[in-house]
Amino acid sequence: xxxxxxxxxxxxxxxxxxxxxxxxxxxxxxxxxxxxxxxxxxxxxxxxxxxxxxxxxxxxxxxxxxxxxxxxxxxxxxxxxxxxxxxxxxxxxxxxxxxxxxxxxxxxxxxxxxxxxxxxxxxxxxxxxxxxxxxxxxxxxxxxxxxxxxxxxxxxxxxxxxxxxxxxxxxxxxxxxxxxxxxxxxxxxxxxxxxxxxxxxxxxxxxxxxxxxxxxxxxxxxxxxxxxxxxxxxxxxxxxxxxxxxxxxxxxxxxxxxxxxxxxxxxxxxxxxxxxxxxxxxxxxxxxxxxxxxxxxxxxxxxxxxxxxxxxxxxxxxxxxxxxxxxxxxxxxxxxxxxxxxxxxxxxxxxxxxxxxxxxxxxxxxxxxxxxxxxxxxxxxxxxxxxxxxxxx
Length: 393
Description:
The chain is α/β, with parallel strands linked by helices and 393 residues long.
């Protein structure tokens, strides 16, 4: 994770001062809430290494907002979504949150993308009293260290999910020597912790690790390092683009080793972008991917999504749609006199029942989902095929 520079911190402090002045002038009025509107904001990697996976996520949020507004909104208020680009850079995320909080006057930040970017943006949001909801990162402890009761996380803990999936694969494949290729940040370190926990629980060994920096394109040195260590299972802590690049490098070298990617590499977009070149890759995921066995309601939703957003895979859209609908459920429960405090009280302890897709019902406990859910999948041509049952804590 990159450190926020001194100039950025000074800018954040100035923004905090401005927000305080605005709050004093506005009196008791809640930021981002007027008689006819609730403003929400998000920041995504629209121009960086994960940009290919962002359009479906943004689309899912937009679908939910459109559906909610068509049904009358929340207590007569229409929802408006502001989207900013973080470029997968923490400094950009800080500036995006400052801008949304002070100029757009958003009520909450919803579904921001990335571990380092979400953490940097959250630091600003927490100081400004802006609820921070469902970031796309499985390092939840970053968002629950300060006692902030306006932070809620949706993605399962990368460490636990990785541990559960790797233990399942070890039992199935009989691996004994594990290698790890990881992004050099909090995301990568959390995956490493999960692999090490799985190795300890199964009596296996982590024989080598190899890191890369965000945005890397060449993985030949890292793959050579893991191959020289004679690993018989390689675990990837990689984003979608890096999942494709590293797995392709492994197979190009004619190394017939089992490879598994953890969240977020197990994404519907990965085999689609790779166009059938990732056969055999395992993936550990949290939510189910859309398949042929969907309910009629899910089939209708996916068909409408495909019509409104042609060419986009629906996975990211489904998850961000569910995130926004859970937020809307709490906004409704908070009542017409909406405040950050009443909203947080409505979120904590709330349950979201997935009535459309095949995901488990989840509850927010101390700001994080329960239960944690994991499953193991494998690439077959341009799709993922589910191998394991759902694994829960």
